[in-house]
Amino acid sequence: MATTADFRNGLCIEYNNNLYTIVEFQHVKPGKGAAFVRTKLKNLKSGKVVENTFNSGVKVTTARVERRPHQFLYKDDMGYHFMDSNSFEQVFLQEDFIENADLLRDGQEVEILYHAETETPLSCDMPPFVELTITYAEPGVKGDTATNATKPATMETGAIIQVPLFINENEKIKVDTRTRTYSERVK
After folding, report:
1. How does DSSP classify residue 154?
2. Are residues 71 and 111 in the same domain?
């Protein structure tokens, strides 16, 4: 059991007979009335984000979860196949368990979140940044810029990312997996 004082981003709680992880929270102490905690909770089964308000000091049940390192192997019609880096067991997940699945490349290291009591996978967390090679990008035309002009580029995984005009084919770039945006060139 935990109280609202123990809330932190990433904490997994049981709420309304479902497992939720806290995406964002804010303690609010209005000038009049009791304090409360405003939260954004992500349902680990459906991926839906809901907003909820808890009274300050309310007890919630925390769920025991474990993060285990896995390596992405391949994708087929059953789903995405991963190998546990410690036990070498293979597990496959459906695409809805993985946010921005089209940024996964073969051999990519990820963390899979497991419910400790039932040993069921809940979600797949990608690293914050991945390095990908551009397979196709239109050439940038000089003089096309007003401010921060971008163009679509196709990555080696098939994902399409907006990149600056000076980026060309066969260049390696770093992509932010949380926002699907270009971060920087890789040297």
Report:
1. E
2. yes
Tokens, residue 108: 């990519």
Q: Give pairs for 33-41: CB < 8 Å, separation 24+.
A: 37/4, 37/7, 39/7, 41/13, 41/15
- What are the φ and ψ backbone dihedral angles of 117, each rounded to 5 degrees? -75, -40
Which burial class, exposed, middle or buried, applies to 98 when counting CB atoms under 10 A from its CB (0-12, 13-18, 19+)?
buried
| Domain endpoint, select from 125, 144, 171 | 125
3-state secondary structure of 146: coil
Mean pLDDT of 91-113: 89
Mean pLDDT taken over the chain:
89
Q: Cβ(119)–Cβ(93) under 8 Å?
A: no
99: confidence class by pLDDT, cuts 50, 70, 90:
confident
* Residue at 78: amino acid letter: M
Q: CATH code at 135?
A: 2.40.50.140
Token couple for 142: 């000089």
Q: For 80-100, give the DSSP string.
A: EEEEETTT--EEEE-GGGBTT
- Over the stretch 108-164, which tens digit does the pLDDT of each residue have? 999 998 888 888 888 888 899 999 999 999 887 766 566 778 889 999 999 999 998
In which domain, by residue range, is 101 found? 65-125
